[in-house]
Specification:
The structure holds two protein chains of two kinds.
Chain A: E1 4-7, E2 10-13, E3 19-25, E4 31-37, E5 43-51, E6 54-57, E7 64-66, E8 76-78, E9 87-94, E10 104-105, E11 109-113
Parallel strand pairs in A: 2-11
Antiparallel strand pairs in A: 1-3, 3-8, 4-5, 4-9, 5-6, 7-8, 9-10, 9-11
Chain B: E1 4-6, E2 11-14, E3 19-25, E4 32-38, E5 45-50, E6 54-58, E7 61-66, E8 71-76, E9 85-95, E10 97-102, E11 106-111
Parallel strand pairs in B: 2-11
Antiparallel strand pairs in B: 1-3, 3-8, 4-5, 4-9, 6-7, 7-8, 9-10, 9-11
The chains are: A mainly beta, B mainly beta.
Chain lengths: 114, 112
């Protein structure tokens, strides 16, 4: 089945530790996105990538890093510089050349602090 | 002022009722409008996608856009307990890349 797979489903981080969240898609989509969702809030954009080897900061990029070495993969690293990392992290992808195709989401990774 | 305002609820209605969910926005540059449904501990799934003023219907769901008032709505007819979820509106702006601006979501419960 085509889709977006995020792993792990739950992740725990110790103080001072970097953790990496995985996002893989087999939809052959060019664009991929990372969002953060806090309780009772909408989604906020962390980073996005429109093509392999290129990515751009979103609205809340501080304390996060990404890479896009393969079309199907867009991992997110939550660094120790992110002081409030507890949240639900969502990855999305979008196909098509124009800007009017909708984004489709994975089922998220819930990150908590130990 | 937030670019997108959405009443977080919670909203609780009996089964079979018509549900109305609403968002207002301030940025007239938004070009497309979406509604996503999100079940607990899951990612959002796309429900409706519109780009012009007027109504778009898909089964029990109707999306309404009024660009002059900067107001969008989602109506659910014959609501079912399985419709219980958080509903997120999202506005699309294209500035070199597509960006979504989300409302905070409305938590909806349909009571049997």
């Amino acid at each position: 089945d085509g889709g977006i797979t995020q792993s792990p489903k739950y992740l725990f981080r110790k103080e001072g530790q970097n953790v990496t969240l995985s996002c893989e898609q087999n939809l052959n989509h060019d664009a991929m996105y990372w969002y953060r969702q806090d309780p009772g809030q909408g989604l906020r954009l962390i980073y996005y990538s429109q093509i392999v080897n290129d990515f751009q900061k979103g609205d809340i990029a501080e304390g996060y890093s990404v890479s896009r070495e393969k079309k199907e993969s867009f991992p997110l690293t939550v660094t120790s510089a992110q002081k409030n990392p507890t949240a639900f992290y969502l990855c999305a992808s979008r196909g098509g050349r124009g800007g009017n195709q909708p984004q489709h989401f994975g089922d998220g990774t819930r990150l908590s602090i130990l | 002022q937030k670019e997108v305002e959405q009443d977080p609820g919670p909203l609780s209605v009996p089964e079979g009722a018509i549900v109305s969910l609403n968002c207002t926005y301030s940025n007239s540059a938004f070009q497309y409008f979406m509604w996503y449904r999100q079940y607990s501990r899951k990612g959002p799934e796309l429900l409706m996608y519109t780009y012009s003023s007027g109504n778009k219907e898909d089964g029990r769901f109707t999306a309404q856009v009024d660009k002059s008032s900067k107001y969008i709505s989602l109506f659910i007819r014959d609501s079912q307990p399985s419709d219980s979820a958080t509903y997120l509106c999202a506005m699309v702006i294209i500035q070199g890349a597509q960006k979504l601006v989300f409302g905070q979501g409305t938590r909806l419960t349909i009571n049997p």
